[in-house]
Amino acid sequence: MSLLGSASGDGRKGRVPGPGTGTSSDPEPERLARAALTRVLEPGDEVTGGWLRRMGPMALWRSLLGADDPPEGAGETKVAGLRLRAERASPEADLATVTALGGRFLCPGDDEWPRQLDDLGDARPVGLWVRGTANLRLWALRSVALVGARACTEYGAHVAATLAAGLAERGWSVVSGAAYGVDGAAHRGALAAGGATVAVLASGVDRVYPSGHTELLERIAEQGLIIAELPPGDHPTRSRFIQRNRVIAALTRGTVVVEAALRSGSLATARRAAELGRFTMGVPGPVTSGLSAGVHQLLRGEAAVVADAAEIIELVGSIGDLAPERRGPVLARDLLDPTAARLLEALPVRGAAEARQIACDSGTALEVTQAKLFELQALGFVQRCGPRWELPPRGPSAGGYRRGGS
């Protein structure tokens, strides 16, 4: 649904905000100007972002409406195209639409504005359109991006959902792009765990894309947050998906790539995160899968390997957020005292040896060696053949007496 020009009947379409427009019933002039500019400027355009930084939103909006001179150094063709867009913009209608959806429009400097987005410099969003009741700034402080292939495998979908649920259960927000595949699985995993999830769209917050995620986006709007740089009704394009990824990278503490081919946009998200000083992580997959090739390439460079939510939090969390030590199963030989374990190692893998030889090979006194060998015999680790000792054909029921725990 397009909302362009829908406010022309009240005589305020395309008006120039000025000092006299900030009344109790109107948004403040700068907010109105920024709302208008989201319909005029393309997300991530560093040229127009530079104009905005130097001129401020109100002066730039007046310039693009033709009330003032064009920005210094601006090309005629670019300015002409932007002015065509500005003529059709109706910020009052866009603000009314998002309010009717129970949403709001955030500007840099607002209490709810995630300040980490400022790291994008001139590519920082002009503003953010938001649906949902949670505080975006607070959720973003403890957030992780989970991204990956749209045409993911069952393995990728399972891993994404499991990671998201684990993060949500530990009080972390899961951020993704609401696309098919890994994105959708990540959102569903967080929702299933009753946790926080944020969908960053490449369209307006009222426009469902992809259409198959209508129900999912409705659930996110109720339980989480939907955010977008584009105003209500605006549509996604290829370049807008690419620029959307920079917001995901900047908004979060780190980015995890679950599955990605060599030319995946998810890799660009992770690399942008690394450029911004965020953590980049990847989940390895089968070496025979093309959908794991991109992740493996990332892991050969700047990314860290992660396998579960605890390992992710160990990287992105605070001091003390350590993942549990990973160990294999406890074997019977692990419970032996150091002397007994040393004697067991001294026995030949094949054949037998006398106690004196075992004592010599292990560097243990003969009387201690003899006592420990009888203990090991009682536990089933060794057997006696006359004056010689050897390993039995099979270990004790507790298992694991062979070299290397095999």
Automatic annotation (TrEMBL):
Note down the stretches annotated as region Disordered. 1-30
The record's similarity note reads: Belongs to the DprA/Smf family.
| Top-rank taxon | Bacteria
Name of the protein in question: DNA-processing protein DprA
A UniProt-annotated Pfam family: DNA_processg_A
Where does the Smf/DprA SLOG domain lie?
Answer: 105-315
The cross-references to NCBIfam families, in alphabetical order and at most eight, read:
dprA (TIGR00732)
